Amino acid sequence: MAMREIRVVGDPVLRTPCEPVTEIDDRVRGLVDDLLETVDHEGRAGLAANQIGVSLRAFSWNIEDEVGYVLNPVLVEVSEDEYQEGEEGCLSVPGLWYPTRRAWYARVEGMDLDGSKVVVEGTELMARALQHECDHLDGTLYLDRLERSVRKKAMRAMREQLG
């Protein structure tokens, strides 16, 4: 297990859709260990594999004292009539938080290290994290979901921050 460095905006791995996990081997087991170790710190709600430089479909979460992971997650359901508006941030966009609209409920299906089916679902913060991490695996950042005027402000702040 290792605490891994977080990749930040500008790193191409964050904009590249991740490949599915096709074989559960020592590399994938090590990835899961690293995802769990790296997300298990205060202020971290979720972490996608590409955020630590691995372009595989896997993420971990740390919500309300529950830490877990899922391989090959697919966002299979979101509430279509109930939304939440709230400040959202990202470890790969450090220090910047912006109002981001997300579905109030989300359900993800994937698998665990034994190849067994996993269902992860939740509302509010868990739903936000599931949507956020699935976006990462598709090469999408939360900044892409901001309203145009807010996104413009966010991009300016990000450029200033990165120098």
From TrEMBL:
CDD domains: Pep_deformylase. It comes from the Bacteria. Keywords: Hydrolase, Iron, Metal-binding, Protein biosynthesis. The active site is at 133. It catalyses: N-terminal N-formyl-L-methionyl-[peptide] + H2O = N-terminal L-methionyl-[peptide] + formate. Its EC number is 3.5.1.88. Pfam families: Pep_deformylase. Fe cation binds at residues 90, 132, 136. Its cofactor is Fe(2+). SUPFAM superfamilies: Peptide deformylase. GO terms for molecular function: peptide deformylase activity. InterPro entries: Peptide_deformylase, Peptide_deformylase_sf. NCBIfam families: pept_deformyl, PRK00150.1-3. Removes the formyl group from the N-terminal Met of newly synthesized proteins. Requires at least a dipeptide for an efficient rate of reaction. N-terminal L-methionine is a prerequisite for activity but the enzyme has broad specificity at other positions. PANTHER family: PEPTIDE DEFORMYLASE, PEPTIDE DEFORMYLASE, MITOCHONDRIAL. Belongs to the polypeptide deformylase family. This is Peptide deformylase. It comes from Actinotalea lenta. The lineage of its organism: Bacteria, Bacillati, Actinomycetota, Actinomycetes, Micrococcales. The gene is def.
